Please model this.
Amino acid sequence: MLRHGLLRHWLDLYELNARLGHRNDIFRNVEDSFVLKYGEFSQNDRVLDIGCGDSTIPSFIQLHYGSEVHVIDIDSQMLESQRSYRNKLKSELIIEEQDATRLDYPDSTFTRVIAESSIEHIPGEGDIQSIHEFSRILKPGGKCLITVPFINYEEVDQPWYYAGFERRYDMENLQRRLMADDDLKVEKLLFMSSPQSPFIDEMYGKIGNIFDIYYKGNFHQTADNLSIGLTLGWIELTEVPCSSFGALICLTKRV
Model:
């Protein structure tokens, strides 16, 4: 976070999270900051956020940068948080129920597309189909910002922390499924990794996986402010996979 200049973006978002009563999260602290830094948003942008759930990122972008922001999900109930934020903030979010694999927008509609911790939940070839749709609706020079789990490739039904399907990527499938569209080039690729240090190794040996303890102990609900300390101390951003558990991707539509 510090070395890649992401912390200031998280600090900007923290105030809005507190205002809306939205909890902080170890991994989302990094993912949100990555989106804000590499999205380079402005009032001239038209932004589409895919499957945002209860994320405050769409509201922040609309209020902080003045961008036109659309949010979509295939499940209307998953958009209730966004409707609540819009009402509380009196913002101008445009909220729609849509399928990311068959978007109902003309070509070259948006300058930014965000799929933060969402595309991995689309089963079958849905992630590949969605990438092609993102490419289609992006204007030349537009950016697509994606975050996904990264470890050994696996497709999981009903993981313990999520009531639905999840795909976890390895490098081969990251490239084949998310970075193979001819019209999109990789501008930035970072990995959320465990820091390589004797202290971290010793702590893992003594107490086990700190992330499992945090989430299974429900500390993300009862002591979510601890998340920033764990984010800074237990997550390192690397340019190559190294004991990694998440991938952060910025793609640019070729001109």
Q: What stands out?
A: The chain has one domain: 7-192+244-253. The beta strands are 46-50, 68-73, 94-97, 110-116, 138-149, 154-157, 165-168, 184-193, 236-238, 244-253. Residues 7-192+244-253 form a domain with the Rossmann fold fold (CATH 3.40.50.150).
